[in-house]
Specification:
Layout: E1 2-7, E2 10-19, E3 22-27, E4 48-51, E5 53-58, H1 71-80, E6 83-88, H2 99-112, E7 116-121, H3 127-134, E8 139-144, H4 152-162, E9 169-173, H5 188-191, H6 194-204, E10 214-217, H7 222-230, E11 234-237, H8 240-243, H9 246-252, H10 265-272, E12 280-281, H11 290-293, H12 310-319, H13 325-340, E13 356-366, E14 385-395, E15 398-402, E16 405-406
Parallel strand pairs: 1-4, 5-6, 6-7, 7-8, 8-9, 9-10, 10-11, 11-12
Antiparallel strand pairs: 1-2, 2-3, 4-13, 13-14, 14-15, 15-16
Helix pairs in contact: 3-4, 6-7
């Protein structure tokens, strides 16, 4: 592969020899004579080669919810946005809280997927079954939804029993269910207040520094960020908490309905100033059908589908002077890889996993949901102009997406294949 890579704050042209998904030799110069012996992929004029993007919070739906999204449409949306790995959530139909449902889901992920993958499981009623799920290929941890908070003790006990063998973590939707109500558009931030996030963290503080890794997902505000960091938890946020606020919820109604809810304008602006403190940015891609989102506000489901454009949404933050390119690498690649336990990820030396994202920082795109690869072809970002586009996506050396076209479907691998036991 010939490419202009972004490394240590600089761009440089390199040649990488890739075999079986790994870099086996690096050339710090360009010698096209090498291409006589090997198949050469020249991406040097496409843009900058970055470590491959990882989305640690995606709802691919599938199974009984395939009318909303499925593994094929969702992961095609992922490569459209430069993602080389996605980690799927367990609130499907059936719910992934038992081995039977997990096996169904893993089969779908192996057969219909365009990227490498991981999956979270939901707490099982039976501790032995939860242990079996956690030891299954592709499973990276347990997702705690608000209704599952009472089961955290059980989950932690199970994870302690396997912690010496494999790396797993707990990912938490931090909203205290005792503090949640629903109300009309524009006011959900009051009915599902910031205090509900803080209350959840307060309940989790008992597990801080206890050898169990806890990750707080889709954080909406700086107070939650600071408290989570104080307890030693890792934290991500989502683009919609940077671009949208309660006024958008009032104006766009169901298109901007999401949990946790959009906060006030002031909260959004303050959050945007502290993006560099987060460990990752995730999409929380939550697709629904048009009919579902067309319902009255009190009846329509929560969720924003943004997997097709999250790459550009984050790159655009560079032109907004909110972050720098190094932060993009941290928030979309290095940080998520560290959370999950992926080592040698997306680097440019011998032994590195050759998954990369090619970006053009100068090109602009106007969001057109009809061009989404996702089944959810509607968006609160419709017609928004973004600076920064994805030119190509490479998964383990295979060019899977290039210039708006799907090039190849790989045989996807569970990312537990690449994580190292302790």
């Amino acid at each position: 592969m010939i490419a202009k890579v972004y490394e240590d704050g600089y761009s440089k042209e390199l040649m990488l020899l890739i075999k079986n998904g790994f870099v086996v030799k690096r050339y710090n110069y360009i010698d096209t004579n090498i291409c006589r012996e090997y198949e050469c992929l020249d991406l040097s004029r496409s843009g900058l080669l970055l470590p491959g993007f990882i989305d640690i919070h995606v709802h691919l739906r599938g199974l009984g919810l395939s009318y909303k999204e499925d593994e094929e449409s969702g992961t095609r949306a992922a490569i459209h946005s430069g993602f080389t790995v996605v980690i799927d959530m367990p609130n499907t139909v059936p719910r992934i809280d038992n081995m039977y449902a997990l096996e169904l889901k893993l089969e779908a992920l192996k057969n219909r997927n365009y990227v490498d993958f991981g999956i979270y499981v939901a707490p099982s009623r039976d501790e032995e079954e939860l242990k079996r799920m956690l030891l299954s290929e592709g499973v990276v941890g347990v997702k705690i939804f608000p209704q599952d908070l009472e089961q955290v003790d059980k989950v932690v006990n199970v994870m302690r029993s396997i912690d010496d063998r494999v790396e797993k973590f707990v990912v938490v939707h931090a909203e205290d269910p005792l503090m949640l109500e629903d109300c009309e558009e524009g006011y959900r931030s009051i009915c599902r207040p910031i205090e509900s996030e803080l209350s959840t963290l307060d309940r989790l503080r008992l597990f801080a520094n206890q050898g169990i890794r806890i990750h707080i997902t889709h954080v909406t505000n700086v107070l939650t960020l600071i408290l989570a960091k104080h307890y030693g938890f890792t934290v991500d946020t989502c683009p919609h908490y940077v671009y949208l606020d309660s006024a958008h919820e009032r104006d766009m109604k169901c298109l901007a309905k999401v949990n946790p809810p959009l906060r006030s304008y002031t909260t959004r602006i303050i959050l945007s100033k502290y993006l560099k403190l987060f460990d990752a940015i995730s999409s929380d891609h939550a697709p629904h059908s048009v009919d579902e989102k067309d319902k009255d506000f009190n009846e329509c489901p929560s969720g924003i589908a943004s997997l097709d454009i999250i790459g550009s949404l984050v790159l655009n933050m560079v032109s907004m002077n909110l972050i720098e390119l190094d932060d993009v690498v941290k928030l979309l690649s290095r940080g998520p890889a560290k959370i999950v336990g992926l080592r040698r990820w997306g680097c440019f030396y011998e032994g590195c996993i050759a998954s990369y994202t090619v970006v053009d920082l100068d090109k602009e795109v106007r969001v057109d949901p009809q061009k989404f690869f996702s089944k959810s072809k509607f968006s609160p970002y419709r017609s928004t102009k973004l600076k920064g586009v994805i030119r190509a996506t490479i998964v383990r050396g295979f060019l899977v997406y290039n210039e708006n076209d799907v090039v190849e479907k790989i045989e996807p691998l569970p990312i537990t294949f690449f994580t190292r036991s302790k």
